[in-house]
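Researcher: Last one for today. Full complex below.
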Amino acid sequence: MKQKPRIIIIGAGNVASHLGNRLFEKGFQILQIFSRGKEKAKRLASKINADFTTDLNEINDKADLYIFAIPDDRIGAVAMQISQKTSLKQHLFVHTSGATPSIVFQSYFPRFGVFYPLQTFSISRIANFEEIPICIDANNEKDLELLEGIAANISPKAFRISDEDRAKLHVAAVFVNNFTNHLFHIGTQILEEEGLSFEMLKPLIKETVAKLDHQKAIEMQTGPAKRGDQTTISRHLEYLQKHPVYQDLYQKLSQSIQNEELGKKKSAS
Amino acid sequence: MKQKPRIIIIGAGNVASHLGNRLFEKGFQILQIFSRGKEKAKRLASKINADFTTDLNEINDKADLYIFAIPDDRIGAVAMQISQKTSLKQHLFVHTSGATPSIVFQSYFPRFGVFYPLQTFSISRIANFEEIPICIDANNEKDLELLEGIAANISPKAFRISDEDRAKLHVAAVFVNNFTNHLFHIGTQILEEEGLSFEMLKPLIKETVAKLDHQKAIEMQTGPAKRGDQTTISRHLEYLQKHPVYQDLYQKLSQSIQNEELGKKKSAS
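Model: Here's the assembly. Have a good evening.
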């Protein structure tokens, strides 16, 4: 059997840890962890039987794949530094970012791509990779196949996604994850300042999401905006006067729901 | 053992059906269903061993509780009509609306209240009442106890909630259910017009919600707005130019997330 690709991970944060653990669990050899933070690098490295370094100049040149799992705005700078080490330059470099085009690597390396796990990771939670889509891309067919092989090893859901499509996926992800979470926060705020518990809303939230498995979101839209119930909308806006930002969001989101309703009626007539 | 309260349900839609079925399942006698739509009334009545009528003047006066499960804007008018029948006037009337104050009944009946199941119901889905909070209220202690007894029979989560608190709960519910669902729709739209599948985002959505059981929403906020990543935000806004309404929402929601971050920093300093 062919040996599994040996991997080096640049980064020791959330994504680096979850991905590193999963790769290790699936039998990949993680040669080395790089992080500027020694303790973080050491901790992750010791868990997955890897070496670690805090010095970019000491990055091992024996790996088949180098995964950047660092903040988006650091990818370019770190790539530039690494590319100055000639023995590394010809290797395959990928990043795990949803928002960053793969061509961030173009000026530094001849072989590059993306290995983007589409999930929100927390240090304190176990990531279920069986459910995590991995979006991969590379600038040549052979590397694409290599990445595909690795992705298929750690998740049943591996997809080839171009830079362009990944950018759109990321915009959509911001709406359904980051913005949704912010709405949960607003709900929490409204209740907590009245001494009510957010627990009361959890069954509603869970059902809203569970329904997605059976219906499209547009078909299960309910509420005052959808019904055109101006009395309730006005009452809610009045209540939200003490939270001008939330009030504005309420108005904008209601307006957007009503636009969709108008659109549906038009396309039906 | 004391006989369980006998109930009449005004309405035969989503809430009426789910609530009627649950009450019947728990051994309550549903005397009658009223709905203007004969087929709907008949269908629900036959399932829960009740009579039905399409005529408000024929509403039975032998029940202990009359539950209005009709659109918010019809509650007042139907209450007025019913109150003209003297034999009904002294009974207990409640509605199932999150948005409507109980005092909508005040001019018509001496005994009134609310029986509000905090959930989003669909005809096609089984409602899990074990998980549904029931918010009750009444204008006198005896009726409050009666409603509490009924609520406790159909759900382990029965709460006394005043009109004022229920209004706030409802505003919060609009944010976490109606608006969240709309964000899911926006995500769907963005992906579908690019030929990408919404399925890819479902694990992310499920994890966002699963995390709520362990962390407060504010603590698990991630994304470009939270990081202050202007490069990504600008790229996303540019992409959203073809959807001005979504673009505006993106901007407003990002701004609101950044406000919270500022607030956190201020309160920490």
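Chain B touches chain A through 89 residues (CB under 8 Å). Chain B has a mean pLDDT of 94.
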